[in-house]
Specification:
- The chain is mostly helical and about 250 residues long.
- The protein has two domains: about 60 residues, no CATH class; about 180 residues, Peptidase M41 (Methane Monooxygenase Hydroxylase, Chain G, domain 1, Up-down Bundle).
- A three-stranded antiparallel beta sheet has the order 2-1-3, with helices on both faces.
Length: about 250
């Protein structure tokens, strides 16, 4: 009897965790204030129906506060985020926790990183490749690049440029005077004033973009399957993403 109760509790916990993961994936891009409002409105809805609040109420509240993403844009975001996920997985950077294109503000990915490989030159080059993978995915599938990779301080291009800049100037991987530590608060100003440095940084980004494209072409079935699933679901948690990514892994 005790064993049966323990098994039932475990099953319930597993189901509850799965629902929470799905809600967390749906909530990507929301602020704390947004989530408070969604929960408050869900409670009000449940109270009016004279019942307890459910996970469905919260999920519907999250989705109800978001505009419908146009068909073509939804595909672009799906390709972009699938590209990041596939390359992240192939390079074994860490787990892919979730993907979301249901925010109305662009796509989101939540990824983790293995600490055992961090800080080597290979790790930084893999990071550059992953950051450029969304752009490579658009180039591969749509033949046209959007501005979605850049435009803001936290964009793919901004992060990749800073990383390549740091490799050249402060991390000891530069082609010129690698032992000099030369930090700067405004990398853009330095790049504008040093064409040779700008060319080296840009070359790193080009190499990462080409490498990402090669990986996606080699894993095209997996990439296509993940993009299609993300387009349809709009939000995928870790287990759903991992199932597709591992299905495409080569046999041991």
């Amino acid at each position: 009897m005790t064993t049966t109760q323990h098994a039932n509790t475990t099953d319930t916990d597993v189901a509850g965790h799965a629902i929470l993961r799905r809600l967390a994936t749906r909530a990507m891009g929301l602020t704390g204030a947004d989530i408070e409002r969604v929960v408050r409105e869900a409670r009000l809805k449940a109270r009016r129906g004279k019942r307890a609040i459910t996970y469905v109420d919260i999920e519907e509240g999250i989705r109800g506060n978001r505009p419908q993403v146009p068909y073509n844009l939804r595909w672009r975001w799906a390709f972009h985020e699938a590209g990041h996920a596939v390359v992240h997985h192939v390079l074994d950077l860490g787990p892919v926790r979730g993907l979301n294109i249901d925010t109305g503000k662009g796509g989101y990915n939540l990824v983790g990183f293995h600490l055992w490989a961090a800080d080597t030159r290979d790790w930084y080059e893999n990071m550059l490749t992953m950051l450029m993978a969304g752009r490579a995915a658009e180039q591969l599938t749509l033949k046209r690049i959007s501005a979605g990779s850049g435009g803001t301080e936290d964009s793919d291009l901004a992060r990749a440029t800073r990383l390549a800049f740091d490799m050249e100037r402060i991390l000891g991987f530069g082609a010129e005077h690698p032992l000099l530590y030369r930090p700067h608060r405004d990398p853009g100003a330095v790049l504008d004033g040093d064409p040779e440095l700008a060319a080296r940084v840009h070359a790193r980004l080009e190499a990462a973009l080409d490498r990402a494209g090669t990986i996606l072409r080699r894993r095209r079935p997996t990439f296509n399957a993940l993009a299609k699933a993300l387009f349809e679901a709009q939000a995928m948690d870790e287990s759903a993403v991992l199932q597709i990514l591992t299905d495409g892994d080569p046999p041991p």
